[in-house]
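Exercise 3.2. Students should predict the tertiary structure of the chain below and write it as structure tokens, then compare their answer with the key that follows.

Predict this chain's 3D structure.
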Amino acid sequence: MKRKRFTKEFKAKIALEAIKGQRTANELAQEFGVHVNQINLWKRQLLEAAPRVFSRGKDQEAERLEQERDQLYRKVGQLQVEVDWLKKKTGLLEKRVSEKRAMIEPDHPKLSIRRQCELIELSRSSYYREPGSESEDNLELLRLIDEEYTRHPFYGTRKMRDYLKRLGYKVNRKKVQRLMRLMGLASIVPGKRTTVPGDGHKIYPYLLRNLDISCPNQVWCSDITYIRLSGGFVYLAVVMDWYSRYVLSWEISVTMDESFCVSALERAVRCHDRPEIFNTDQGSQYTGNAFTGVLKDHDVRISMDGKGRAMDNIMVERLWRTLKYEDIYIRDYVCVDDLLNGLRKYFDFYNNERPHQSLGSKTPAEVYWEMSTIKEAA
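Answer key:
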């Protein structure tokens, strides 16, 4: 068997996490797929090497040593500032992109925004992006469209235009098309065009038709939905286990690019077992090499909904309806921070407390972990 190799950056990262002590070696081993003994070894090596950062052997070139010492003092001072700053950012590896954005301190006296982004592995472009915004009139239309689509997901742009006109809004179909496209919405009735794959992206066949899905981690699925805020909106992506309805991971973004979908997928694979099949729609976020590449690296079979068939991914569609009626529309979140806290609480409730009639009145967590244990034992 070929010996697994790790980069020095990876070793340092894991060793630093072990030294910080926020999680046990067993927890780090489980998340990163490294043996506990290896983590303990890297931790010991880092601790033993640390004193050498602060000292150097005597040398006859006193002036050169003095310069080096001054440089080291400055570096150590900077490192101490960075370490002190990082200590306040607990659970860094578990943070989502949106949570990392909230950790940046633009007025920090000694750490630039660029350096803070580097320390928490956040791209500067992700930090500077703001939640999507429209005029107040358009935000009102977006709110109405979102609520009506949740009630009647078979509404296309014509029916939605007629609905808004009956409410007294002067809108044409072109405007409704733009707003629904912005929200990523399309009627569940098969039509000519729904989600749009990227140019040159491969479309995979739908593998779930007539498939008996009988256990957790047999099929995972993912989708994106629009989430309104008082002064704008964001997008939410989830990864869900089809059989148990267990939400494995989630991520929010202010744009519809593929990065937050990839982040949610990587987190699900890192924290849970891999599925046999992964199902999505044909949107460019899911057909690109970044997303499909992760699935291929883990030998996961790729399934995609038929063109114009939103109900092929019915489990996530049901989750969106439940989430919006039970939380989003009730809370009416003001900002991203409020939304993050609310989603964290709701998904914890959904997974661990909310029973499902279709699951025999059990919660998704009970079914997912119970059946996963049985499958492993078998």
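Discussion points: Residues 136-183 form one domain. Confidence is low (pLDDT under 50) at residues 190-194.
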